[in-house]
Amino acid sequence: MRAACFVLTSLIIGGLGACKPKNAGNAVSGNAAEKTYVAPGKYDEYYNFVSGGFSGQLSVYGLPSGRLLRVIPVFSLDPEKGWGFSEETKPMLNTSHGFTPWDDLHHVQLSKTKGDNDGRWVFVNGNNTPRLARIDLSTFRTAEILELPNSGGNHSSPFITENTEYVVAGTRFSVPMDDADGDVPINTYKKNFKGTLSFVSVNPQSGNMDIAFQIETPGVNFDLSRAGKGPSHGWFFFSCYNTEQANTLLEVNASKNDKDFVMAVNWKKAEEYVKAGKGKKVNTKYMHNVFDESTHTATSETKNNVIVLDAKELKDICYFIPCPKSPHGIDVDPTGQYMVGSGKLAALIPVFSFDKMIKAIEKKDFEGDFAGIPVIKYESALYGEVDKPGLGPLHTEFDGRGNAITTMFVSSEIVKWNIKDLKVIDRQPTFYSPGHLMIPGGDAIHPEGKYVVSYNKITKDRYLPTGPELSQSAQLFDISGDKMQLILDYPTIGEPHYAQAIKADKVTGKSVKIFKIEENKHPYVAKGESDTKVTREGNKVHVRMTTIRSHLTPDNIEGIRMGDEVYFHVTNLEQDWDVPHGFAIKGANNGELLVMPGETTTLKWVPDRVGIFPIYCTDFCSALHQEMSGYVRVSPAGSNVPLTFSTGTNLPAE
Amino acid sequence: MKKVAFLGLSALLLYACGGSTNTQETASKTEPAVQEVQEVPQEASAYDSLRGLGKFDKVDVGKALDQGMAVKGKQIFDVKCSSCHKLSDEKLVGPGWKGVTERHRPEWIMNFITNPDPMIDKDPKLQAQLAICMVRMPNQNLNDEDARNILEFMRQNDGVK
Q: Given its phi and psi angles, is residue B124 left (phi above 0), alpha (psi -120 to 50 degrees) or beta?
């Protein structure tokens, strides 16, 4: 079936593809292995941060080897690491809807300084229950999650400005504003549904996020976005579809217009309006969750209002540029002069000129307005069109040598073209149906055009069959020469949407190896075994426990009663790299703990029956790991068994 | 499993015959502890079992005890050492501390507690001890001052006044 489609597609493109390989087998040339081989014990050249899509997590690969280095839990529970199971991490998944254990993570942005990746943080978006998260690259852990009010479907996010001044979020699904009565007929979309664009400021020292302002827009679907840079710094560009404002069967009803829009937002101007008090304070409710590395504990704070600017009232912050047809990606080239729209249903790629756009705005060269927002004439903002690039253009990255590479979803290929003359230079098949693609620094001022990775939606016959579900694939191409050369193909987790990569040496030097036990400020830390104890406060029992190779202290606990809630606060006394200890107890309706050296982490356990419950370390830690275990005795409610705890002194009674 | 890999790496770093590979360069950039070891290139046969392996050549302890240092040493012992070592001569996970300052020179002790993994790989006495304890002494990330304070506490424990 797929092969048939592929052939058909080739015919449609006609002449462009010439001799396409019939399958993957002959697409890889002889020296591919040499180019991707990273010998055992050697490091990769790049860290590649890849969205985990509907897994809700962020994966980290090494390039060019394609080795999976880590999966960082972000929006979804991860029992392996205790993420969302330990008392300390539960607040991270808190939203205004309560504990929200899953999301759909689409896009990845490395923090930037002067338009280039700086290796401090990675920002990611949650599409389903609109959120932003920040991952700290010293710990490779999620440090902060911010919920977005007045939003549905946070898709055009978390794209960032040149110096990480703002991370943005835009609504893929317009909804009534939070302070309006939401109990309205769905078919009153045009009247009652609004889009918002959130500008979230980032503290340059701590990285902490705060919603600086939101811009309220007519109800449309914002899809992707990119910041301007260089000359266009101060502007942001959002692609939008469903300018039909359909509320049902969008597949048909949102695909009627020949052109939808790219919305250009003058965020510097918006900042001025906020300063001048032109925003209105809108009541709402959203959560801001921050993980504190000194207490190893997250806190979740409720926020109650946000400043909203009205795009229609404030005439000069938002402009629409017509863009054929249902644009998906909107990508800004390294010079900041050209904006590439990828109309996924269009047979061409429009390239807009920033200078022309500014002149058109100055001359009010508008064709009219859409819901009160001026619409610039298409030709007045257009630099030119790439003719017949392929079918289904989705996303574009830049190689830093004046070229752009665009994924073609329908015709399953990546296409390289020149930004100045708009001529196609090369095209290579991908297997199959690429969504995003990634060049290290490919959205930055200085791209490193050595590799491009294509993230493919369909895997089909690429790997050994594993039942109905297959891993999606990533394909690495060497783009250092004239021809793009496929050199590696590897499976990914969840669904990889966008990804970014950074030279390893910008990150490795600051990677934390341990948490210093002296600096541990957890309220239930045990700094040494003499600090360990078990205390009762009503029906709550707090166990301050330590781990070190290879015993738990205490490892014998008696006097727990039915009806108790037991909190195991486990401090790992190790101060050596790569020596976590795990902790688990039989029958817990909970995950495990995985405690890093110097860290304290808490597992809540509510015993469900009387008896003896084994506890043990889950991470093989030494030759005596199997001995790293103990017992907890649970007695009936009201029992007079005294609360006792010990290690090594509770000697055999007989 | 992880531990085996780590051992392998340590061994590689120690025994590599001077040829600097990319791995070593990258690893040493991010791992100062290992780099220090590399700066003391020694053949296996050149291992000084009295001094040990690490940055400390000669530690002058003086005759009398420094009370202040010993108090600080005790505080570190409580957090980082007492899980595995008793102050008597009784073995817990590792050997008891009684008499350790009589069995080993000050520089050997300070080298070992700041640089345990490479020394366990080389030192005959530590090899023998490992066969008894079966647990490699963890690197507890002690700085020079910590190590010196612990040494003073060990001296106090051995009766130095």
A: alpha
**Count of pairs with CB atoms under 8 A, one residue in A, one in B:** 85
pLDDT at A17 over 60: no
Q: How many residues does chain A have?
A: 654
CATH number of A76-219+279-313: 2.130.10.10
User: How far is residue A166's CA from residue A209's CA, in Å, rounded to a whole number?
Assistant: 9
Interface check A648 vs B, CB under 8 A = yes
Mean pLDDT, chain A, whole residue set: 94
Burial of A209 (0-12, 13-18, 19+ CB in 10 A): buried
Looking at chain A, which residue has its C-alpha nearest residue B28?
A: A509
pLDDT at B73: 98
* pLDDT tens, position by position, A19-73: 444 454 556 777 899 999 999 999 999 999 999 999 999 999 999 999 999 999 9
Q: How far apart are CA A402 and CA B7, in angstroms?
A: 48
Taking an 8 Å Cβ-Cβ cutoff, which residues of chain B contact chain A? 1-3, 6, 9, 12, 21-23, 26, 29-30, 78-80, 82-84, 92-93, 134-136, 138-142
Residue B22: its chain A contacts at CB < 8 A? 42-43
Q: Supply A301's token pair.
A: 């704070």
Give pLDDT, residue A26. 52
CATH number of the domain located at residue range(s) A517-646 in this protein: 2.60.40.420
* pLDDT tens digits along A429-450: 999 999 999 999 999 999 999 9
Predicted pLDDT of residue A346:
87
Q: What is the pLDDT of residues A311-322, one digit of tens each?
A: 999 999 999 999
What ipTM was estimated for this complex? Answer: 0.78
* Distance between CA atoms of residues A9 and A25, nearest Å: 20
The topology under which CATH files domain B44-157 is Cytochrome Bc1 Complex; Chain D, domain 2 (1.10.760)
Chain B: residue whose CA lies nearest to A40: B23
Put simply, the answer to whether A549 touches B6 (Cβ < 8 Å) is no
Could B141 and A516 be called an inter-chain contact, meaning their C-beta atoms sit closer than 8 Å?
A: yes
Q: What separation in angstroms does the CA of B34 have from each of A460, B55, B120? A: 46, 11, 14
CA distances (Å), origin A456, targets A52, A396, A427, A476: 13, 14, 16, 11
- Is the pLDDT score of B16 beyond 60? no
Determine the residue of chain A that is closest to B131 in CA distance: A623
Q: CA-to-CA distance for A43 and A416, rounded, in angstroms? A: 30
Question: What is d(CA A647, CA A611) in angstroms, rounded to the nearest whole number?
Answer: 20
Q: Residues A184-232: pLDDT tens digits?
A: 999 999 999 999 999 999 999 999 999 999 999 999 999 999 999 999 9
CA B3, CA B10: separation in Å to the nearest integer? 11
Phi, psi of A180 (to 5 degrees): -90, 165
Task: Report d(CA B38, CA B42) in Å as an integer.
Answer: 9
Domain with CATH 1.10.760.10 in chain B: 44-157
Query: What per-residue confidence (pLDDT) applies to B46?
Result: 84
